[in-house]
Specification:
6 helices; Rossmann fold; 5-stranded parallel β-sheet
């Protein structure tokens, strides 16, 4: 199974990893994993005052801060994974990658506030569900 694991470095990511660790059906060589993080873009006006290389470096550092502990998790479990980041709104980036990459499943952590809170707060998980044709496993 081709799995896209969307992470943001929050406690919700840690819960998703803990879930994967105790459910052997999700971890293993019979799956192909891509770990994905969406980096929030720097406002255009702020970026205009920075060198292009400096902005790129900020994006890369943000991504590395989130992806490094997940990389260690996969290494500890002896599982190969591809690590990717993109700049832009998380839900849209996750849905686009899931579709273009023809993933079988998206796994992501969520706050799990329920349907009403999701409508009010516009959570990333709610948006991914609405934008993505790929099945999504939400872990809270």
């Amino acid at each position: 199974m081709k799995i896209l694991l969307a992470v943001d470095g929050s406690v919700h990511t840690k819960r998703a990893l803990a879930y994967l660790a105790v459910h052997n059906e999700w971890l293993g060589a019979h799956h192909t994993y891509t770990v994905f993080h969406a980096v929030a873009p720097i406002p255009h006006r702020a970026a205009a005052f920075q060198e292009v290389d400096d902005v790129r470096s900020l994006y890369e550092q943000d991504a590395e801060n989130v992806l490094k502990p997940v990389r260690k998790f996969f290494d500890r479990h002896g599982i190969q994974a591809r690590f990717v980041f993109r700049i832009g709104p998380a839900a849209r980036q996750i849905a686009q990658l899931a579709t273009k990459g023809r993933y079988d499943l998206v796994i992501m952590g969520t706050q799990g506030h329920g349907a009403m809170a999701g409508l009010v707060m516009g959570s990333v998980a709610t948006k991914v569900l609405s934008l993505c044709a790929t099945p999504v496993l939400l872990i809270r």
